[in-house]
Amino acid sequence: MTIFSRIISSLLLSMSVAAVRAQCLTGVPSPKYEVRAVWLTTIGGIDWPHGYAQSARSVQRQKDELRTILNKLQHANINTVLLQTRIRATTIYPSRLEPWDGCLSGVPGKSPGYDALAFAIEECHRRGMELHAWVVAIPVGKWNGAGCRKLRARHPELVRKIGDEGFMNPERPRTADYIADICDEITRCYDIDGIHLDYIRYPETWNISVPLQRGRSYITNIVRTVSKRVKARKPWVKMSCSPIGKFDDLSRFLSHGWNAYTRVCQDAQGWLREGIMDELFPMMYFRGEQFYPFAVDWAEQSYGRIVAPGLGIYFMSPREKDWPLDDITREMEVTRQYGMGHAFFRSKFFTDDTKGIFRFTERFNGCPALVPPMTWERSSKPDAPTGLGIVPCEGKKVWRLGWTPADRDTVAVRYNVYSSRRCPVDVSVGDNILAVRLKRWHLLVPADSSRYYAVTAVDRYGNESKPVQLRDADDGQYVEGGTAKWAAWLLPCDNSTVMLPESVSAINGELVTIESVYGRAVATSVVRNGRVGVSRLDDGLYTVRSFGKKGQTHRLGRFMIKRQRQR
Question: Is the pLDDT reported for residue 561 higher than 60?
Fold first, then answer.
């Protein structure tokens, strides 16, 4: 199958899904806003990579493997990738603070020959997915491991030994600054969408000798310090963490000694309340009464922020606890009913379709979803795009949908595309989402004259503009019978001249303007005997406009130039 054939097949599949748009299995419609995340682990290459980068060919294999993973995630409409970036005082990017992890090159401290974080960001953004840099905060690995050894040499006071492992000491003030330095370096150097703090807590093996309230203040100080540094540089970057899945004992359900607040000093709900966290991915690797009441507690104490419970899909593996698929799918259904997203731990169990979880999620996430906007950071909406138009591609079963951006900065503004068979397209309905967070200003869509389209701009905070709808530009009426039944309203054109309607022949000798499908003037011409010369124009769809007495223009019609290609 050629690359083009694969593109067409993918487009036809996505549009058929958009046409069906079945409600999820619980009867709850697919939401417009929902976080759908996956933890992608790099430590030991257990999710990625499964081969070392030690030559140009092996670097390409490593990149191709990640592309394959991301393609699968995109196919299941995952919109957030939590990529393990700082592993154990080691990194997957060229850091001035810590050495390379060995997961990429096979040799601790050695570069793999490319910047894995930059590559992953580019590939995620190309697929409309967010990438959050997953930073393991407190554990720094084996006491004599490369990362821990280097950290101890530079900052011996920050590291404490427990068994044969090293941990950063949360009770040292400099610990907060050091972790903030790491997160600031990532934020400054990379176009990330979030900083995700993992293991931002006391280790369970740590004998906490200070009062719990003081212990919580130490951990909170780290979170606050990191958040202030990140937000000062890029306020749209989401701050998130993965707290223990049960916040604390509930009035009717006990956590049985394993919770965030009392056991390991994580005041995660307080971090939401204070505004130093935008998003939580609580590690809810439980079932039954150890899951549902605590999930509802997270939802009720979200303070308007984002919560996406982490689901332990690895427990479905026969090598783990051999959970049935239903245990996870019911949790997905309930979290959706409570307006929360979901996050899978971890990627390989998902892409390997353990007990059918990938196939279920394909159906459950029947269409793309937007990440909820951070209106608490910024709520103003970007300007809407203009000049939405559609052009058939010669000899192909696709059309090219294009628009004029209001802001050409693709870092600040991206684009969402909606489609339906009703007009105007309702952009408030999740089932109508076709593509999200596009950096480009066009999209190939299957040739289907019964579909309508709308496009919105979205800023880095997730705020969305008003839509521009594909419609008749003069009278504001939507084109009868679909967006592209041109045969009924194209002017005759022999690729050299366009014949104007007899009703406007009185403008002979007057000047008209020719506009592209995006509303940009590309030529002017004088009307001669009811015809307009267009021989110098390229192939495409155009609009002819006359000039009125009061400076207003009037559309005289549209025409298409389609020349035979020379062999």
Answer: yes
